[in-house]
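Worked Example 4.2. Consider the chain below.
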Amino acid sequence: MYLLGQVRELLTKRSDAIKAYEKALEKDPILWCAYERLCVLKPHELEPQKYFFEEHEAIQRLNL
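Applying the procedure from the previous section yields the following structure tokens:
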């Protein structure tokens, strides 16, 4: 999903790129590069708590 976001961003399909980056983060919240791109594309609308929460499986693996 991150790579799809990059392609869509290069094609100037901003809203599609945002959706792809958001899906990438939903699947893997430790994919920091996707979060960085969202910070650039929609800095004032970003809700970090939507992606980063302790109950997420990927974050649980980090806590082991």
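The chain has a mean pLDDT of 87. Residues 16 and 26 are 15 Å apart (CA to CA). Compare this with Example 4.1 before moving on.
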